[in-house]
Amino acid sequence: MAELTLVEAVNRALAHELEHDSAVLLLGEDIGVNGGVFRATLGLQQRFGCERVIDTPLAEAAIAGAAIGMAAMGLKPVVEIQFSGFLYPAMDQLINHASRLRHRTRGRLTCPMVLRAPNGGGIHAPEHHSESPEAMLAHVPGLRVVIPSSPSRAYGLLLAAIRDPDPVVFLEPTRLYRLFKQEVADDGEALPLDACFISREGRDATLVAWGGMLHEALAAADRLAEDGIDCEVIDVATLKPLDGETILRSVEKTGRCVIVQEAARTSGFGAEIAALLAERALYFLLAPVKRVTGYDVVIPLARLEHQYLPSVDRIAAAVRETMEASA
């Protein structure tokens, strides 16, 4: 058991799979000699060699395309894209090939690849470096979309993603890479994909969040507890396929729900969860579902980021509004 940051947990999971499965290999821009832009692959090329940890040209479409070919032939490639804002050249490969390979070949071929990318804001990066495109990715049939919220979940979920026989997009919250440490056992135990985690139990309102926003949700729950408002906090973790049953059970218990996403508001993934609640939990609700989100603008640069990202104050205010609406 070691105390690891999230980026160290990612490194540990990659090393574990490289060591125990000869089909696993890594490829991406600057991941070998330099260990990646955030050093998630630091030391892995030196340990496993340049045929297993491959530095590629700056060509995201080519990287993703090569990975699909490798996966179709029985390898398990793990691709790193330097920032989620650089994903778009690879989208053609993900949408038209990776996600369709099983269906297109009637199950004769699968695509066991993982595409990793830093995701979201909070580190004052320039344009294209702080985006949250999870809703766009979750809309693609055949792709799994996973976003960890802690070192232990990053380790276990990444192991599960690499072992999955179908393509997984694994978005790593940039702000959490070195925000805190957590005890992580390097035991090779994967966490279940397609499952939400209840991070805090409560009775008065349900807070639903994922990735970096889970921590604002937990902080808001702590603040609200001082006023006697007991919040249950759910970490979605796997957005696609969504474990709606865990969310529905929680809202049936609390009668209130606030969904927190850092992505822009319109057509964000929080709207999908709100639709689920409208369709299947309407008669349990004591107040309208609320969303706390980013704004419908390009995420501002540097010092203005904090005005864009959902804050503890905004989340707590939304919960209080749901409490007052049902009083």
TrEMBL record:
Keyword Oxidoreductase set for record: yes
Regions annotated as coiled coil: none
Domain named Transketolase-like pyrimidine-binding: residues: 4-179
Co-factor requirement: thiamine diphosphate
Pfam families, sorted: Transket_pyr, Transketolase_C
Keywords annotated in UniProt: Oxidoreductase, Thiamine pyrophosphate
Protein known as: Alpha-ketoacid dehydrogenase subunit beta
GO terms assigned for molecular function: oxidoreductase activity
Domain of life: Bacteria
Organism classification: Bacteria, Pseudomonadati, Pseudomonadota, Alphaproteobacteria, Hyphomicrobiales
